From TrEMBL:
<keyword id="KW-0479">Metal-binding</keyword>
<feature type="domain" description="C2H2-type">
    <location>
        <begin position="260"/>
        <end position="293"/>
    </location>
</feature>
<dbReference type="InterPro" id="IPR013087">
    <property type="entry name" value="Znf_C2H2_type"/>
</dbReference>
<keyword id="KW-0863">Zinc-finger</keyword>
<feature type="domain" description="C2H2-type">
    <location>
        <begin position="231"/>
        <end position="259"/>
    </location>
</feature>
<keyword id="KW-0862">Zinc</keyword>
<dbReference type="GO" id="GO:0008270">
    <property type="term" value="F:zinc ion binding"/>
</dbReference>
<protein>
    <recommendedName>
        <fullName>C2H2-type domain-containing protein</fullName>
    </recommendedName>
</protein>
<keyword id="KW-0677">Repeat</keyword>
<dbReference type="InterPro" id="IPR036236">
    <property type="entry name" value="Znf_C2H2_sf"/>
</dbReference>
Amino acid sequence: MTTGEKNIENYLRKYLKSTKRIRTLEVLEQSIEAEKPKKPISLSFKIEKPETKKNITKRKNDKTKEKVPEEFKRLAHRFGLPKEHLQFFYDNRESFHWESMEKKDIHCTEPSCNFLEKMINKSLVSHMINEHQYTDIPCTKTDCNYIACSQKALNGHLRSFHGPGRKPSANQMLNCKFSSCNYVAPSKSVLGEHHNIHENRVFSCAFCPYRCIQRKSMSIHMKKHFNIRDHVCHECGARFNATGVLRTHISIKHTAGAGFECVYCNKTFSKISDQRAHGRTCSERFKHIRIHL
């Protein structure tokens, strides 16, 4: 606003006041106020867009999995740790006794086998093949390219993947894309893992022939190689390498009179071995299977 315009406004104000034209003065003030440039409003708080489910999941994953720093990579190289498992070693760095790792020994992962070998790439391959009959066994089922690393792995694959499986729950809505498969998944991520089995997209161990679909399963397998037992029973102090194994231990050893329930027919058993035996033949388990013609 120029100096001349200000002088005119002041003259009008004085004139309207002296002539007692109060209502006209109010209109003038309102028009002058409306023509002034608006100042940006400064808030005492920050307005942010609401997080989507995808962003929340990504943020949680980023927090859970820290990026492996260069200093740790140099330490891993010194001990000869394989690059493909650096994330595992970094996530479990507090469980390792780095001084003792100078020996560079790793354990066989088979139950009741105490064999140790020097920690080098593929160091346990010969042992697993000769002592535990590990070998590549392709699945022969339709639309399945999965290749098991042992007969035990193939049996587990046939039982969980091509068997009757668990009865689908109400939230399972996504069908497998392969027409010969009955599987129904609760989410896209779970369905993606299922498709990985069909197409044999797996994680491979750097030390032995073991392969698996889930990163979590590979982490548990690696803990067996390095004898990491970071899950402790607070009742008796027993240590395990996975939450599921600890949970089973507690249910068997420290849960009195709870019983073991069949997830298909809700029948209860006093022993977990009886419950598992029943589950293999439970008639309710087979009712949900679709027959493909």
